[in-house]
């Protein structure tokens, strides 16, 4: 079975899933957001680009898009709680405010006006027999949320319809590529081009990236060759968040999720979506990378000898690598940001800060990790030119911040991180 980079780092086998995905993804033929850093946030780092999925999946993604949000949730004003009012307990993203009437009758700019009952009907017709309870069937929008019960425990299920912000099946392919486990926790993921040109991703993951609760989120996302997204999520609880686990796993298998998102009946609803992709793009979906500095090749050219790259990724202005010198994995992250002079006073106000003869400021920080991994340490070199060109390099003594340390210290010393951050290559990076 063809797999992308994200699926090559799976942990213990998940019984039966690989065999099933092999069949599900047969074909002719890698937001959700990256984990944020306090200092980077202070600098306004890559706002908006580093949300994948909140979602992802969330669709997922090549380099990173769906991360900090984990893999959960479909965004839609039409997702309504049991009271008939918008609720954030079940959906990721900002629901349409107001009463049941305003949700049904008021059309916002760029908002889809598909009857939710029509979306619900397609869901019910293309899933195994069971009891369904859909929310606010009189509303209009581009998504439906229901609770499914097959007798083994109630499960929240959502399906959203979107236009791809990345374009057609080629330009938007990054939205259906498996994410790296550096930023997103999942058990299995596979993505593939299907016969006819559509692209499918199926991922078995978790609602919370740090696994603080064992709410599972299994998801299938189809990107059609003409640029539509059908995004289905299921959970092993009757709500995406805030509900007790009701069953070991979500109800539908990978085969059944594929059947749901590839159902022909979606086609007549997709054509009713507004034409503005920015209004309808799934917030968790990975977007095609913005043009920007060639982070990966420049970073790799600056690595000390003897390091093997185990994983890598990035988007505009951001890159990461998981490296190993034979003593354990070590995560390396970098951000390259122009026009940051206005934040210099805040970023370099205290701590171990020096000013070089050419005016560049250098701040060195060594502190514990902050994502829950036992024994993880976080070393950072933050630099900025007088003109505001900022390069921040961080290293950890683990392959991800969520997992326990794999070594006593990061694979790169502070001096090596400093050399990378101060390299003149960042202002004239390579292009390949």
TrEMBL record:
Residues 85-110 are annotated as: Disordered. It comes from Streptomyces zaomyceticus. Keywords: Membrane, Transmembrane, Transmembrane helix. This is Uncharacterized protein. Residues 85-101 have a biased composition (Polar residues). It comes from the Bacteria. The chain crosses the membrane at residues 57-77. The lineage of its organism: Bacteria, Bacillati, Actinomycetota, Actinomycetes, Kitasatosporales.
